Each structure stands twice: as C-alpha cells, then as structure tokens.
Amino acid sequence: MQILANIIPYFISQVENFSRRERISFAYLSIENVLGFSKSDCILKNDFKINKKDIKSLINIVNQLKKNVPIQYIFEETIFYNLKFKLNKSTLIPRNETEELVKWVLQYKFNSLFDIGTGSGCIPISIAKNSNSIISALDISLDALEIAKINAMYHNVKVDFICDDIFSYIPKRKYDIIISNPPYVLKSEKVFMSKHVLDHEPHSALFVDDSNPIIFYERIIKLSSDYLNDNGMLFFEINEKYSGDIIKILSKYNFVDIELKKDINDRDRMIKAVMK
Ligand SMILES: C[S@@+](CC[C@H](N)C(=O)[O-])C[C@H]1O[C@@H](n2cnc3c(N)ncnc32)[C@H](O)[C@@H]1O
After folding, report:
1. What angle do the packed helices 52-66 and 20-35 form, to 10 degrees?
2. pLDDT tens for residues 50-90?
3. Are residues 39 and 98 in the same domain?
4. pLDDT at 52
5. Which of 181, 184, 189 for mutating ligand 1's site (highest number of atoms within 8 Å of CB)?
6. Could you tell me if residue 78 is inside a domain?
7. Which of 84, 115, 122, 240 could bond 268 through an S-S bridge, CB–CB 3.0 to 4.6 Å?
8. Is 119 in the pocket of ligand 1 (CB under 6 A)?
9. CA-CA distance, 3 to 45, in Å (whole number)?
C-alpha cells in the first residue's frame, strides 16, 4: 500500500465482512481522514507516496473494520442533519430515520423543546441549529452526555443537558414540544441483528425487555400529558410493530391529531400527537 492508488484495492481485498460498496466508501473516508485527500484528489494524486505512519493508521482502520467496528466509532464522528457529531461507544450512532424525525419537527413553530434519551445530542443540537427555542435534553448516561455537551459546544448552541432516569425524573417546566427516540428493540430480536451493532453499540440505548416493549413510550406519554403546553406536540421514533399500542396509550391520555409517518423505506417509524 505504498501509493494512494493502492488503498481502494487494499480495502476491497481485506474488509470482506462489508459489502463492496461499503468497502469503497470506507476507503475514501479513511483516505480523507488520514491523508486529508478528497475523492477527486484520489484521481489527481494517485501516485502520491504514503509515509509509514499513515500506512500504519490505514492498516489499523482495516483491522478494526475486520472486527466489525462501525466506521463511525473508528473515526469517533458522524454526520447527522448535515452537521458533524462526535461519538464514542457510550453513544448510539444516529440513524437516518432520526434525521427524518428532526425534519418533521422543524416544520412547526415552537419556543421550547425537551429531548428524552439524547445520546450524542444529535436531536436537540440539530434542532437548536435550525430554530430559535429553549432546549433541554436528558439521558441516563453521563458518558453520553459528556459527548453531547462537546457537540453542543462545537456547534455553538445552548442546550440544558440533564443526567437522570426518565422513570423518576420530573420536569421543572412545561414545553411546546417533547421528542424522544427511546430504546425500543426487543432483547429477543438480538438474534436477527448484525455484529456491527450488537458487538459495538450501547445495549442500554437499544434494547427493552420483551415483557414490556413500550415501557418508555408509556412513561413519556404520561409525563407529556402533564408537561406539554396546550397544543404542545409529542414526537416519537417508533418500532412499527407497536404503532397500534402507542396510539392506544396516546388516546387514553387525551392526545389528539395523532399522525403516523413512514420512513424512506415505507415503514411507520414516527408518530406525532397533540395535547389539547
Ligand atoms: C435509541 S438511543 C437514542 C439516542 C439519540 N437520541 C439518537 O437518536 O441517536 C436511546 C437513549 O436513551 C438513553 N436511555 C436509556 N434508558 C434511559 C432512561 N431510563 N432514562 C433516560 N435515558 C435513557 C440511552 O442512554 C440512549 O442514549
């Protein structure tokens, strides 16, 4: 792997546990990260000689990919809603569906918002960057919140981060919007999940007991019925299997105008409800 032109073939031949498209994309990302070269640089400077230190870094990336470490954890960053976010193993890697949830929220006018289970802070920070509102965000993980605070500082936005357990936390004020992407994957679904996720992402961010898959939704709906302003809105990312159960609880707590939204794969993955 002495010259730039060899890097893509090296990734393709070595990282067999990912698709060919992923291997090529990881190679370009690694070239950019380690050598600072863009895709077009790769064509223009294809005979560029790589120094020993950078070869070592590239080999190290390949070795981690072989162990199924997601590329976002290798570089400790990702892009969400066109913004760069720092990540580590205490934070979930933000998903595309969550970007769609943020896009949906930003269609409305609001003065205050509370994000429950904030992780890297991707939801409140991307909303703060694109709105003018008072924003709070809560997570049970102190390690995740440290990353979220770094991300808020990097993007120069003000978010009040709270470390607490949503099952005991009582908000100090009412909000126009409450939003959450809580843990919603059943423990029994682990067998169907890829090793990239299972071996590396925080299980406390993903999984719930099979005995009550919507435990977070029940708690957050109940809390929101007391802590949303009149006409305030509740937004959730959901497991499509439980949309019916979640709608039932929303109705029980007198939420109206309940709306399901599909993701780009045509699955019901988001829900919105209004508190009258
Ligand atoms: C699915 S992740 C969502 C992370 C981020 N909002 C995102 O969309 O990428 C759920 C988050 O809920 C947090 N969490 C889990 N149990 C919690 C609890 N009892 N109280 C508060 N937060 C909790 C986890 O630490 C994790 O960051």
Report:
1. 150
2. 999 999 999 999 999 999 999 999 999 999 999 999 999 99
3. no
4. 95
5. 181
6. no
7. 240
8. yes
9. 9
